[in-house]
């Protein structure tokens, strides 16, 4: 059976601007053909096993000619595959989406179009420019600075007197030509203008001016850039919200898996950062049927069970469940956790943490345990195979007896090697939420220049590990994801001073 082609608009660069329907299409595709304009953040949403083909074009240099792209789409579809053609912005706004559909139509291949957020509206919006505004502009004209042949040939006479907002796409190299052309065709030379390069990304650069001085003010304009002409540009002074976000312009790598947007990556994005997800470890449960059976018998003999991570909780609870048991195994056993995330993991299994230190740290947990154990009680620690020894040291020093059972292990992994990005100075911060993430990172980034970024560590033990490897670190005030974000914002404010 023949496959299908889905044109998907990726939006202008911020991965959050991909539509839900577009995301679902990426997740279900057999192959994805993408452009230079589809940002890294969106490419990382494509599942590992999916074939990815870069057909990106640079102006003047066409790695894959359009005819060949059309042909590739057809061939994949005829081969029974579901192919996504991912395009920057919207598929049909100067996206050649229609051209790609022609051949499919001729060959009776099924297709679908998932529109995207066009840069013509979104990039001005990220610079605080509403493309229409009551009293300032009542129409919007999106103009290509390039015509079919590649040479600029803009009918300035038509646009100079049109009123409303003009948005020029593909005009990065033609700013002076456009400004002069409009002025010569009779437009007021004091008409406000804006040039926005790399809009909606951490490299966004905005220049405001008038037709008369915009070329001089902007200097060399980098592609991709949107040029906006019209009274609405003046609103940017008031409405530029993006560059005011606290982590705007910073690229931050997150080295652990994120399950939801309330995690570290989501919080950093909400603060305006460009986040690269590069998990450096994954965890594997060690609670097989044998260990589950043993835990089931053993846990009730202990007065306190200790969890120091959400991974430990799921390994134990899923293991017990698989062995026909459940939360009732903990009946009289009190449960101690290191912090809120571990407590939240317990709650998902219907269990409440009895002991949680005010401060998230091995030291604070050690103290809390020492207090609890004084009143008598046997302690069972359910932790990672390679857990830090800090807690053991503290308990040993207080003469508290405990048993330790490894319930999961962390395995270094690396889906995305960031060495190139790091050495190119493209990463400002790398976050580490455990010693194991530092070790995983080091294993895969042996040739990375560790001085070109700052490590942001969740706590002292993690920072010690990162420093030992040669990184310069900042450490969260109190070991939590919220605190890591606040520490980063603080560092940014400090740097800005
Ligand atoms: N289909 C796309 C436009 C493709 S033409 C859309 O709907 O947005 C390519 C042009 O889009 C670029 O030359 C530039 O003018 C504009 N563009 C796309 N992404 C941009 C970005 N992040 N910042 C500024 N301009 C962008």
Q: How would you explain this protein's 3D organization?
A:
The chain is an alpha/beta fold. The chain is 34% helix and 21% strand. It has 19 helices and 20 strands. It has helices at residues 20-28, 40-43, 66-78, 97-106, 119-126, 156-160, 175-184, 214-218, 236-239, 264-270, 289-298, 310-322, 340-348, 362-374, 390-397, 419-423, 435-444, 460-468, 481-496; strands spanning 4-9, 31-34, 51-54, 82-87, 110-114, 140-144, 165-169, 192-197, 205-210, 225-229, 251-254, 274-277, 281-285, 304-307, 334-337, 379-384, 402-412, 429-432, 454-457, 472-475. The strands form four sheets. A five-stranded parallel beta sheet has the order 3-2-4-1-5, with helices on both faces. The N and C termini lie far apart (63 Å). S-adenosyl-L-homocysteine binds next to α5 and β10.
Q: Can you lay out the helices and strands and say which pair or pack?
A:
Elements: E1 4-9, H1 20-28, E2 31-34, H2 40-43, E3 51-54, H3 66-78, E4 82-87, H4 97-106, E5 110-114, H5 119-126, E6 140-144, H6 156-160, E7 165-169, H7 175-184, E8 192-197, E9 205-210, H8 214-218, E10 225-229, H9 236-239, E11 251-254, H10 264-270, E12 274-277, E13 281-285, H11 289-298, E14 304-307, H12 310-322, E15 334-337, H13 340-348, H14 362-374, E16 379-384, H15 390-397, E17 402-412, H16 419-423, E18 429-432, H17 435-444, E19 454-457, H18 460-468, E20 472-475, H19 481-496
Parallel strand pairs: 1-4, 1-5, 2-3, 2-4, 6-7, 11-12, 11-18, 14-15, 14-16, 16-17, 18-19, 19-20
Antiparallel strand pairs: 7-10, 8-9, 8-10, 13-17
Helix pairs in contact: 3-4, 11-12, 12-13, 14-15, 17-18
